[in-house]
C-alpha cells in the first residue's frame, strides 16, 4: 500500500488554514508547496505566513522557487522533516545538500516531467532520502497526468534501489495512482483529487 501525502498549494491563508485543519484530522504527513512567482508563473504563501501546525504532523516542503538553496533558513520549523528542491531551479546543488543536512532535515530532489532521471549522480545517493517525479509540469495543480512518468519511476528504482523514497506528484487519482504504484512508486502526493472528497479519496488511494 502506498503512502498518501495530501498537498497544500495555496495563496490564501484562510484556505491554507482550512485544509491544514482537515489534514491534521486524517493524516500525519503532508506536503506543502512553495512557489515564488519566479521559477514558474504562480505564487503561494511563504513559510512566514503559515499558521501553526499540530505537533504530530510531519511536513515535506517542495520548493518550486529560484535557487532553493537560498530558502533553507526559512524552513527551520520543527515539523518540516524533508526539504525537496526543484532540480531545475537549483544553482548550487552541493550547497543545497550540505545546508539541508546541517539543518537536520532530509534531502529531496524533484524532477520536472521533462527532466531525465540520469541527472541523479552517484555522489547524491549517500544523503538523498526522497526523489519526487512530477507527472505534470511543475507549478499548478489540476493538470492532466502525463504517463511518461511511469517508465521514469522504474528507471529511478533501478538507480536508487530502496535507499530513497520515490514520490509521484501531479494528476493523481485512483486510476493514475494505481499505475504509479504498479510501476514502483512508494508515495503519492495528491492535491486536486484528494480535496474533492478527503476522507473517501484518502481511504481509496491508501488501498491501492
Describe this structure in words.
This protein has 208 residues and is of the alpha/beta class. It has one domain: TIM Barrel. The chain contains 6 helices and 8 strands. It has an 8-stranded parallel beta barrel with strand order 1-2-3-4-5-6-7-8, surrounded by 5 helices. Helix 2 (93-102) links the parallel strand 4 and strand 5. The radius of gyration is 16 Å and the shape is globular. The N and C termini lie close together (6 Å). The mean pLDDT is 95.
Task: Give the SSE map.
Blueprint: E1 3-8, H1 13-26, E2 29-35, E3 58-64, E4 80-86, H2 93-102, E5 106-111, E6 128-134, H3 149-160, E7 165-169, H4 174-183, E8 187-190, H5 192-196, H6 198-206
Parallel strand pairs: 1-2, 1-8, 2-3, 3-4, 4-5, 5-6, 6-7, 7-8
How many helices in DSSP terms? 6
Shape: globular
Task: List the domain count as a whole number.
Answer: 1
Binned strand content: 15-25%
CATH topology: TIM Barrel
- CATH superfamily placement: Aldolase class I
Contiguous low-pLDDT stretches (5 residues minimum) are: none
Average pLDDT for all residues: 95
CATH architecture: Alpha-Beta Barrel
Tell me briefly what this model is:
This protein is α/β, with parallel strands linked by helices and 208 residues long. The protein has 6 helices and 8 strands. It has one domain (3-206): Aldolase class I (TIM Barrel, Alpha-Beta Barrel), CATH 3.20.20.70.
